Amino acid sequence: MSPRIRGLHSFRAWLQARPLAADTLLAFGLLLVGLPQMLLQELPKTAEFEEFRDPDLWGVLVVVIVTMSLRWRRRHPLPVLLFIVAGEMLVGVAGYPPSASDVLAFLIAIYSVAAHRGLAQSAVGGLVALTHLVVYIAILPVSTSPVEMMTNFVLLIGVWVLGRNLRLRRAYFAELEDRAARLERARGTDARAARVEERSRIARELHDVVAHHVSVMTVQAGAARRIIDRDPGSAREAMSTIEEVGRTALSEMRRIVGVLRTDRDPERAGRELAPQPGLGDLGELLDHVRETGLSVQLWIEGEARPPSPGVDVAAFRLIQEALTNTLKHAGPQARAWVRLYYGDGDLTVEIEDDGRGTATFMAEDGDNPGHGLVGMYERVALYGGELKIGPRVGGGFGVRARFPLEA
């Protein structure tokens, strides 16, 4: 951008921030146009134009005062219009010829009332302007043709309509901005609530996993205590199992720290402490999905190894959530694919479909983002993984997550 254009933008921004200064410059501009025309114009040498007085100091002073009143056109548009109407009537009664400054100031005042005030004051201003135009034309010593009168009326009404349209347009955009701000605040609130809800659910699941391991440790410790005298080898094996399970439980306990558990479900208090479903239950999940009519295929690549219990639950829940969204949004003829890649130290999970659910998957409830999507990010991030969600090339939707096998 050139320095000249940059300077013009800066000057425009300065005027927008200072409307009083901008209107003052507008009034000065009208005087620069109107005063020379008023002082230097030569009236036709006809009988009707001989009725006009030659411009003098008083006439110029009235024009200057009337035009400079535009300085307050935004703050007090209706009083400014009434003041300009009174000034023009004074000029007409005194016999001075109309000047460009008076006419332009009158039109700008009409526009200002329509653009900066409500319908009631705008209507009053329009009626005052129409009445003034009729009376002013009547007191002029020159005759006005019907075409000229019609042109003046159309111009006045057009300026008033322009001001009203711009006011309604500004109100419309202001409402849109306010609505967008409200939706953004509501979206942020919903996202925070979804994160809190998902963290609570993850905490409960991790609690079940850890509790299961603690139960195993208790049983193994009791068995080792009973057989340590008669079968030391089996007791040592039980102690090794306790050590291994204990390390796993501690690893899962570390993940519970920092996960906010906001609600306590009393119905879960009496439930049996058992691990959540994992990748070993994937076949049952896919069979259930196929029963709904969705064609699902499963590929497993690499050397399958059991991940940590938390990753096992997270990968299963991710597949479950992605297939649920496919059922809801992909359409009746869609197909889905689930792929598991076992790498050297990580597990990659991919769920893809060829449906139509690209837009609806990203926003489930009107303008609010889907809670399932937030839950996916929370769950994968909890285990130090990576998640990518987006449309597939050629149509459909894809979810790709990478989990470390040892979380």
Structure characterization notes:
By secondary structure, the chain is an alpha+beta fold. The protein folds into 3 domains: 3-144, no CATH class; 194-268, Single alpha-helices involved in coiled-coils or other helix-helix interfaces (Up-down Bundle), CATH 1.20.5; 279-404, 2-Layer Sandwich (Heat Shock Protein 90). It is 64% helix and 9% strand. The protein has helices at residues 3-17, 19-40, 57-68, 77-94, 100-116, 119-139, 146-227, 232-256, 282-291, 309-329, 358-362, 371-382, and strands spanning 295-301, 335-342, 346-353, 386-391, 397-404. Strands 1-2-3-5-4 form a 5-stranded mixed sheet, with helices on one face. Strand 4 and strand 5 form a beta hairpin. The longest helix has 82 residues, at 146-227. It is rod-shaped. Residues 260-274 and 363-369 have low confidence and may be disordered.
Describe the biggest sheet?
A: 5 strands, mixed
Task: Report the β-strand fraction as a percent range.
Answer: 5-15%
Instruction: Kindly state the percentage of residues in helix.
Output: 55-70%
Class by SSE composition: alpha+beta
Report the C-alpha radius of gyration, rounded. 40 Å
What is the H/E order? HHHHHHHHHEHEEHHEE
Mean pLDDT: 79
Q: How many angstroms separate the termini? A: 52 Å
Enzyme class: transferase
Transmembrane segments: 20-37, 57-73, 80-97, 103-120, 127-143
GO molecular function, one term: protein dimerization activity
EC number: 2.7.13.3
